[in-house]
Amino acid sequence: MIRTQISLSEAEYEMAKAEAARLGISLAELLRRSLRHILPPDNQNPWMRYAGMVETGEQDASQKIDEIVYGHKK
Amino acid sequence: MPAKRSTKSFTATRNEAYVDTSALISFADRSDSYHPLFRRLFANPPPLVTTPLVIAEGHGWFLKRYDPAKGLQFLSMTEAMPLEILPIGPAEQRAATTFLRKYSDQHLTLADAVGLHIMASRKIRVCWSTDFHLGLSKVQLVIHQ
Known about the structure:
The complex is a heterodimer of chains A (74) and B (145).
Chain A: H1 10-23, H2 27-38, H3 65-70
Chain B: E1 17-19, H1 21-28, H2 35-43, E2 48-50, H3 52-65, H4 68-80, E3 83-85, H5 90-102, H6 110-121, E4 126-128, E5 140-141
Parallel strand pairs in B: 1-2, 1-4, 2-3, 4-5
Helix pairs in contact in B: 1-2, 1-3, 3-4, 5-6
């Protein structure tokens, strides 16, 4: 582990602390998780960080694109 | 000297795959049943081609389902991907219209039809899609491989 120091605004600090408390983790762990989410997991394939970027809850979401984009037939 | 048209007289010498909107959405949506497949495919992709119409459809999907911020995130995703986005002009539109007439009994979109034309003209054998419309010609959908 490398120790480092960062500066946050008071509002950012309070929000981050509240979120960490809600998740039951430390502020440091929250920041580490946030960084892991933002940084590409593989520098050679930077697009892979977008894999699963949304969760529609629909198993057939990719088969209903026309309905969403073009609408249902009236 | 006029620019070479990218979709005419093309001989496939590489193992290109055509990427449809559904492949991009499946990759982005972890709920989709094909997400694990496209996650694996995009992790080690062959040369990939698509069109601006596919990008526009995907962007429209994110605008409808989410918001402009997610739409921009989708565009960033496509920019990061090793995707060759082919130029589409009047010639490609005319060729796609021929496909729309041929398959007029199907609910084929112009984006689908342009995709069918691109795959035919570039002799692409594999289509990354979950949409059966893209399998109307002889190209094999990757979900059936």
